[in-house]
Amino acid sequence: MNPLFQLSTRSYDKEYPIIIQALKDLETECDITNGYTIEQPFIKFGWTFFNIQITEEMADIIEKSGMMEGALGYRIGEQLTNFIGHYLETKGSNVRIKKIDYG
Fold it and tell me: What's the rounded Cα separation, in Å, for the pair 85 and 89?
């Protein structure tokens, strides 16, 4: 199963290009193409929510490469969530991230 995360922001138009570029950079670091998908956004209570899904292959590369070293969390899903959130933050994003599913 592919890891699924929900991102939320109050400034979607500003954040979306940052997220796209960060995910492209992550694909490059993992030496993979088509490593993620982004679902259509929806707005609720002034926040824009959208899901990103990382492919199993990309998640496996991230896990085994040592990229997640130092990521907090007891389970691999928590560590991957924290890694992705921190990675996006280092690229200039200010979104909130929540793990929806990791199997």
Answer: 6
